[in-house]
């Protein structure tokens, strides 16, 4: 079904129509400096399409919560744990409810984590719930920055990964990204490049005008026009809008934002005793309680989930008493359940490219869902188990003295490198062909073969391994401390699973 919504007036007085069905397949990028009318444009788009498609708005300033009164959007407060937000997002997809995730009151890093958890929850929904959703992200440069800022690297990776999934892989899952940014130069290029429709508003900086002109296929000399655009005026291009750059004026909206541009107001008449009014305290001030709100330092959600898993119910008289309906299990049975949950997570092909903290959150949630008793694994222990699982070691090899030596040696490398180190050690102990660059890259959580080669060079510089080639140009990795080495392997071979590689050999 083809549905066109009216965005305003195009040049020549004709109606500017946006094809919603085409937009769902091709995504939209909106750019313009502060005050150019981006939020007004997004509100017009949301209002006009509310009856046709489910909507989800990532709202950093709480401007779009007013959509709830007229169009019935559910307001989701971002001040929740990441696990809660992921669950809410998943249920929103199941029940096809439009919502606004308001992040007002959170600092930048908390906003990034909350948005990432919510987007990941929508992205990871079961296939049967892949209904079309218009996902609008305002101030997208905050959630997909082109360079690292003051936030932690973990938060930046988590947020950027969620935005990349939305724009690059979301189409098949029914997610249509609509992102708005003040500056194209601050937005990650791999996120911006996936949009096929553009609405470019007023822009002043040369670098942003040049990028806008490149995206619209315009000459660099024509980029000067972006400086002269009035508020609410945009240049449209894309299969859902126009096949040629088309100036349009955005129409009126039915709802209003809670915040608006400041207006000039006359100052009050000066009073002769103004100094007394300012410097003399009101007697009632001393009776009012001082309510300075000092936000607590953000705690990692992984620690909170671990505490929830350990804590007893409110009002419990003894933490040692087993809860009704939950039988105690043996240590061996518990270890078996932990291993089964871990295998479920790591069997997902996409798990190799998700951060350990995200996998840890999912691990804790699954343990609680299956009611596995006992304290949960700490994050360092979880990372260690993930590294061992990703190495692909079998039971017989795991019980050997050589593997014990490999585990001891792996403690000398950082957590993110242990999986790669143990995978190479397992291949050397069993005499298997040296893993290819693509296989090493996947074990490290990247697609870059160049980075895989740098990891081998790093291990060699540390004295852990010796890398050399045979006469056929195949690579061999030797471990002097274990007195073993891999069989020759093609570094350019495609990435295959361990079982497939053994069969092929």
Automatic annotation (TrEMBL):
It comes from the Bacteria. Signal peptide: none annotated. Residues 323-334 have a biased composition (Basic and acidic residues). GO terms for molecular function: ATP binding. Residues 24-301 form the AAA+ ATPase domain. Gene3D superfamilies: P-loop containing nucleotide triphosphate hydrolases (3.40.50.300). Keywords: ATP-binding, Nucleotide-binding. Residues 287-334, 483-505 are annotated as: Disordered. PANTHER family: HELICASE MJ1565-RELATED (PTHR42957:SF1). This is ATP-binding protein. The lineage of its organism: Bacteria, Pseudomonadati, Pseudomonadota, Alphaproteobacteria, Hyphomicrobiales.
């Amino acid at each position: 079904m083809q549905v066109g919504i009216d965005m305003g007036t195009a040049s020549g007085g004709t109606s500017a129509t946006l094809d919603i069905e085409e937009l769902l397949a091709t995504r939209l990028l909106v750019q313009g400096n502060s005050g150019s009318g981006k939020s007004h444009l997004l509100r017009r788009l949301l209002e006009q399409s509310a009856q046709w498609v489910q909507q989800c708005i990532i709202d950093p300033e709480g401007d779009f919560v007013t959509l709830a009164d007229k169009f019935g959007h559910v307001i989701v407060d971002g001040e929740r744990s990441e696990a809660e937000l992921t669950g809410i997002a998943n249920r929103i997809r199941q029940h096809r409810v439009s919502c606004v995730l308001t992040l007002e009151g959170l600092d930048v890093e908390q906003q990034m984590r909350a948005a990432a958890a919510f987007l990941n929850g929508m992205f990871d929904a079961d296939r049967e719930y892949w209904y079309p959703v218009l996902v609008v992200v305002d101030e997208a440069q905050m959630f997909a920055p082109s360079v690292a800022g003051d936030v932690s690297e973990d938060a930046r990776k988590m947020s950027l990964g969620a935005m990349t999934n939305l724009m690059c892989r979301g189409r098949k899952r029914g997610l249509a990204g609509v992102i708005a940014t003040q500056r194209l130069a601050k937005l990650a290029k791999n996120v911006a490049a996936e949009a096929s429709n553009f609405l470019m508003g007023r822009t002043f900086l040369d670098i942003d005008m040049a990028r806008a002109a490149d995206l619209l296929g315009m000459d660099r000399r024509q980029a000067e026009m972006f400086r002269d655009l009035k508020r609410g005026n945009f240049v449209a291009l894309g299969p859902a809008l126009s096949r040629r750059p088309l100036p349009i004026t955005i129409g009126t909206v039915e709802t209003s934002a809670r915040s608006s541009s400041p207006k000039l107001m006359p100052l009050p008449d000066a009073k002769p005793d103004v100094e007394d009014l300012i410097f003399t305290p009101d007697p009632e001030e001393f009776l009012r309680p001082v309510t300075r709100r000092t936000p607590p330092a953000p705690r990692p959600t992984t620690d909170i989930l671990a505490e929830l898993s350990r804590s007893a119910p409110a009002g419990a008289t003894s933490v040692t008493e087993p809860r009704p309906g939950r039988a105690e299990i043996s240590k061996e049975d518990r270890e078996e359940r932990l291993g089964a949950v871990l295998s479920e997570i790591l069997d997902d092909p996409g798990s190799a490219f998700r951060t350990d903290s995200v996998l840890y959150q999912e691990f804790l949630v699954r343990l609680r869902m299956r009611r596995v008793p006992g304290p949960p694994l700490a994050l360092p222990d979880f990372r260690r188990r993930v590294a061992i699982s990703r190495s692909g070691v079998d039971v017989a090899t795991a019980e050997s003295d050589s593997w014990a030596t490999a585990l001891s040696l792996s403690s000398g490398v950082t957590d993110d490198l242990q999986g790669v180190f143990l995978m190479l050690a397992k291949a050397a102990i069993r005499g298997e062909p040296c893993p290819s660059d693509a296989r090493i890259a996947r074990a490290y959580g990247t697609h870059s073969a160049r980075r895989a080669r740098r990891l081998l060079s790093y291990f060699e510089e540390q004295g852990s391994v010796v890398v050399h080639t045979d006469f056929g140009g195949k690579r061999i990795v030797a471990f002097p401390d274990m007195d073993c080495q891999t069989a020759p392997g093609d570094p350019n071979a495609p990435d295959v699973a361990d079982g497939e590689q053994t069969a092929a050999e």
